[in-house]
């Protein structure tokens, strides 16, 4: 009898179920107030969401000790804090954003003309326009603008705060037209995109793992007053471990609808949130605002990203742009390193260790390391492209 009890308790601990989710447990997690005093680098708290000033974060992060403190604060804001924050004025030069918006408009027009472009897993056709893998399309269309855009120090800083180095950037544009309806509350990739039947097959520690494998961000490409429908969030909801399953139950969705918060954004602001946070894009009630955000989905070096990205092709395109921009002073070395981190593969594995043995360590050279080496050595673009291809061949089985 005692054995049965131990076994049942253990099974209930390891196998989370939709049926066992409890709204009172959930309320104990989410009915908390964000204290500004716990986040000394934040500028304010609005509707339980932390607000940071981009320039002041960068100023603090300029010293080793300051960087350590800021990254730790951001890390805990995601993990145990409200799980969402806004970085105001993350792009001081919004001309970079405007140029990128023009590129995205061109891509959307091409999708309309050719009937290309996929559907959307969250919205009805026509309500919005999606650019899947805007990362690669952006780089191939205008590598210099890509370098300036992803050279942004705050994108790199926040990605590293949650995922550590060698993260894998992916991005998707969402342009929500007036009349576009709100999404239903959800969590994001990985487990957030699975059915309850699938989610219930993963042991509890994988429910904890999923949110540390990715990070969600968004760059505001236009001013987004509340009427245009910026994202709805439920602060602290990422801390409820069975939340992937809870969202399949109506009373949790109703709770989200009653308690979610929404903040206006300005062009050039960045929003970041834990992928396990309950959230949904809002309804665009405006008459004429096409709400455009570039959604950043950053994956851990150790995870599998949602999208396939041809990083070899992107790196070949980015390299000559970086060379020119570094030479004429339009890009600093640090900005170039940020752009490389968003473009090239930053991790050594998987590889073929017969052909690609680690030299002077345990991890073979990465695509990103190769790009740094080429830039430092002033290689010609053709030589770099050939080296990229040779490296890719070595990794094949
Ligand atoms: Fe989402």
TrEMBL record:
<dbReference type="GO" id="GO:0001561">
    <property type="term" value="P:fatty acid alpha-oxidation"/>
</dbReference>
<dbReference type="InterPro" id="IPR047128">
    <property type="entry name" value="PhyH"/>
</dbReference>
<protein>
    <submittedName>
        <fullName>Ectoine hydroxylase-related dioxygenase (Phytanoyl-CoA dioxygenase family)</fullName>
    </submittedName>
</protein>
<keyword id="KW-0223">Dioxygenase</keyword>
<dbReference type="GO" id="GO:0048244">
    <property type="term" value="F:phytanoyl-CoA dioxygenase activity"/>
</dbReference>
<keyword id="KW-0560">Oxidoreductase</keyword>
<dbReference type="InterPro" id="IPR008775">
    <property type="entry name" value="Phytyl_CoA_dOase-like"/>
</dbReference>
<dbReference type="Pfam" id="PF05721">
    <property type="entry name" value="PhyH"/>
</dbReference>
């Amino acid at each position: 009898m005692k054995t049965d009890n131990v076994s049942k308790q253990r099974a209930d601990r390891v196998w989370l179920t939709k049926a066992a989710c409890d709204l009172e447990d959930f309320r104990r997690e989410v009915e908390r107030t964000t204290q500004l005093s716990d986040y000394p680098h934040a500028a304010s708290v609005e509707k339980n969401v932390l607000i940071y000033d981009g320039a002041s974060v960068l100023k603090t992060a300029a010293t080793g000790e300051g960087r350590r403190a800021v990254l730790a604060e951001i890390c805990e804001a995601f993990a145990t804090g409200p799980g969402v924050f806004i970085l105001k004025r993350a792009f001081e030069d919004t001309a970079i954003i405007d140029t990128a918006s023009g590129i995205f408009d061109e891509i959307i027009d091409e999708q309309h003309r050719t009937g290309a472009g996929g559907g959307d897993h969250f919205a009805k056709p026509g309500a919005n326009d999606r650019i899947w893998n805007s990362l690669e399309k952006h780089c191939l269309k205008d590598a210099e603008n890509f370098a300036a855009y992803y050279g942004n120090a705050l994108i790199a800083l926040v990605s590293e705060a949650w995922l550590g180095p060698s993260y894998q950037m992916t991005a998707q544009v969402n342009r929500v037209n007036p009349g576009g309806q709100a999404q239903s509350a959800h969590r994001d990739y990985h487990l957030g995109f699975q059915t309850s039947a699938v989610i219930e097959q993963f042991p509890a520690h994988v429910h904890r793992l999923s949110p540390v494998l990715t990070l969600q961000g968004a760059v505001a490409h236009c001013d987004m007053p509340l009427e245009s429908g910026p994202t709805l969030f439920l602060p602290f909801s990422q801390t409820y471990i069975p939340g992937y399953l809870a969202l399949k139950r109506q009373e949790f969705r109703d709770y989200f609808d009653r308690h979610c918060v929404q903040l206006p954004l300005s062009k050039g602001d960045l929003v970041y949130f834990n992928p396990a946070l309950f959230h949904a894009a809002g309804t665009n009630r405006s008459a004429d605002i096409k709400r455009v955000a570039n959604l950043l989905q950053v994956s851990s070096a150790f995870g599998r990203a949602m999208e396939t990205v041809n990083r070899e092709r992107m790196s070949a395109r980015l390299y000559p742009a970086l060379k020119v921009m570094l030479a004429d002073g339009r890009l600093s070395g640090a900005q170039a390193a940020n752009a490389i981190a968003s473009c090239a593969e930053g991790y050594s594995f998987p590889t073929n260790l017969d052909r690609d043995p680690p030299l002077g360590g345990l991890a073979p050279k990465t695509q990103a390391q190769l790009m740094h080496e080429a830039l430092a050595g002033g290689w010609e673009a053709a030589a770099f492209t050939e080296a990229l291809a040779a490296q890719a061949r070595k990794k094949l089985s």
